[in-house]
């Protein structure tokens, strides 16, 4: 698919009109992070029950795990590559592109790096109910050439020269979704949700001006692209790193909330106070997009279940809903948890992909459970651990066995009501338990 996309794009050329001037760097800013199933999301389906929304999210989580697995396989016989794994996009964010600024709604993804939007003239685009971004109508749009610094940030398998020497990019996903177009630079602008009517702008931001795009997973026409928040060089975080101290954080609300979560950059991302714990952030050269942590053990009451991990054995990811643990480790953890709860597991009518479910009881005593990362103990609350499947009168654990040996992921359920800070300069991830509705 990618070679054919390159062939088609070789005949496209978009002329640059002018270059952008750098603005004064902001100290920090905050944007709203919209969960796709919240009432303020264009994907919200009011006919679904809370349990159905959660189970659907769990199924999306399985899909994302499989895409991570395919990327791991890619690294076995190929050089390191950037990768997009948007899946069905658990979180969305609004931003503006160009001069004059044009509003866009995109997936926000810590497991991706490239920023891209659909552009005109589009050879093949998925439907959206707002006009495509018209680069020739923006005074700050600049196309990039082969051999330029932005183009060198693409891997050889994701880039090619067009007929006029323009830098062409192409990414393909495991479900036949793809984006391809012209690697370019533009001014990106964000509303600062903590600063009244203030906005912050970042000139010369590298992005993909998509001329061939397809998202097979969306029925809504509100979506226009993706914003990568991973550790790769083309992500928003990496590109504006100097202005924000290479630091961002988020506070994710439980699915039951009607508010929006917050995504913070720069000084506003810093978390301080009692209860803040930090663990080393590990970036692996073969998988530069992902944020790895080292999970040493999980404690259940007075028992400790060690993982034996020493070199970054879990990915922390906001776009994966469930937490996945390696099968052997999970089996030990689950056996000890069942003993501590004193329950019999339900064997039939368990909603896939959940597998640790038991009858609901108001009198159930939940033992203290915590993740033991290197240098940081992160205590989990019931909201991080269990789903109340009301239609079936059962509680189900949000931690499940990974179907793939060697891959474990700390998902968003385990991060609800935690302020989570990513400090790429200090190479650490910090956690602070909080009420994210008051963040």
Automatic annotation (TrEMBL):
Any one cellular-component term (Gene Ontology): extracellular region
Domain Peptidase A1: 91-432
Compartments (UniProt record): Secreted
Family in the record: Belongs to the peptidase A1 family.
Cross-referenced PANTHER family: ASPARTIC PROTEINASE CDR1-LIKE, OS07G0603500 PROTEIN-RELATED
Record SUPFAM superfamilies: Acid proteases (SSF50630)
Pfam families, sorted: TAXi_C, TAXi_N
Alphabetical UniProt keywords: Aspartyl protease, Glycoprotein, Hydrolase, Protease, Secreted, Signal
CDD domains in the cross-refs: pepsin_A_like_plant
Entry protein name: Aspartyl protease family protein
Signal peptide range in chain numbering: 1-22
GO MF terms held by the record: aspartic-type endopeptidase activity
Main location: secreted
Highest taxon of the lineage: Eukaryota
Gene Ontology biological-process annotations: proteolysis
Source species: Vigna unguiculata
